[in-house]
Design goal:
The chain is α+β, with helices and mostly antiparallel strands. Helices cover 20% and strands 36% of the residues. The mean pLDDT is 93.
Length: 162
């Protein structure tokens, strides 16, 4: 019975197109895992490393091309979650350690993923209702004390007003 229920949830990869940023990665697409909700809609299931304006849990509209790739074409409903990317400064007190970044932010219970061993950027989902003011204060302190660089890939009004 459990296997039959699991099969009812279809996981697909939804692709996003964007203009590459100068001095950043040369990619102009990013594929994010998503739970298919209906033909043409899906809920994003992982945190984006490159795509701005989308967060884990957002429901997006997609179109499937002739090759079977699902391309995001719009936002249906934002989740209220935020996407934060943190890159430890190699010469700083955390070194190149994504684990040390996770530890510094562990009090906030954020889920995150590491880009790669070569580039230890950690992309975090800050869930709606989290202590945005506390997270922001720690991110700023870490940047001021040369622990890391950070950016907000997707922020809500609640995030920006915290």
């Amino acid at each position: 019975m459990m296997a039959a229920m699991e099969n009812m949830v279809e996981t697909i990869k939804v692709w996003f197109r964007f203009v590459p940023r100068e001095g950043w990665f040369p990619q102009d697409t990013e594929g994010l895992w998503a739970r298919k909700l209906s033909d043409g809609t899906a809920s994003v299931q992982n945190v984006p490393f490159l795509q701005d304006g989308v967060a884990e849990g957002d429901v997006v509209r997609y179109q499937t091309d002739a090759d079977g790739l699902h391309w995001a074409v719009g936002m249906i409903s934002p989740s209220g979650n935020c996407t934060i990317r943190v890159v430890p400064i190699p010469t700083g007190p955390l070194g190149r350690s994504p684990q040390a970044v996770h530890r510094r932010l562990s009090a906030f219970g954020l889920g995150g993923e590491v880009f790669s061993e070569d580039f230890p950027m950690v992309a975090f989902t800050a869930p709606a209702g989290a202590d945005f003011a506390g997270i922001k204060a720690l991110l700023v302190r870490g940047q001021e004390e040369a622990w890391w660089h950070y950016e907000v890939g997707c922020g809500t009004d609640e995030w920006w007003n915290a």
